[in-house]
């Protein structure tokens, strides 16, 4: 697993197409997050889009960890 330095997420915006044809909208500021599921008209084949604003969020190790987590391939050591 890749390592990364400390980071801070100040703001998050995301559009995640779901398998049922709907769209999950996510927005957050600091520790407050809101999600809404809406009609995903025209989302076939669309990929998820996430925008992070903060400190240290551009690290390759953090990006790799996020992608592995979202794809369900992240393993944890005990």
Distance between the termini: 13 Å
Q: What class would the helix/strand composition place it in?
A: alpha+beta
Which regions are unreliable across 5 or more consecutive residues at pLDDT < 50? none
Helix-strand sequence: EEEEH
The count of DSSP E runs of length 2 or more, i.e. the number of strands, is 4
Q: What percentage of residues falls in helices of 4 or more residues?
A: 10-25%
How many whole angstroms does the radius of gyration measure?
A: 14 Å
User: What is the arithmetic mean of pLDDT?
Assistant: 83
Indicate the overall shape: globular
**Strand percent estimate:** 35-45%
How is the biggest beta sheet arranged?
Answer: 4 strands, antiparallel
Specify the number of helices.
1
Strand order of the largest sheet: 3-2-1-4
Q: What report would you give on this structure?
A:
With 78 residues, this protein is α+β, with helices and mostly antiparallel strands. Strand 1 and strand 2 form a beta hairpin. The model has no long low-confidence stretch (mean pLDDT 83).
């Amino acid at each position: 697993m890749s390592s990364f330095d400390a980071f801070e997420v100040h703001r998050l915006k995301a559009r995640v197409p779901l398998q049922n044809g709907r769209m999950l909208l996510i927005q957050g500021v600091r520790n407050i997050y809101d999600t809404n599921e809406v009609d995903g008209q025209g989302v076939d084949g669309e990929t998820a889009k996430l925008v992070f604003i903060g400190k240290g969020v551009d690290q390759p190790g953090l990006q790799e960890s996020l992608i592995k987590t979202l794809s369900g391939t992240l393993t944890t050591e005990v």
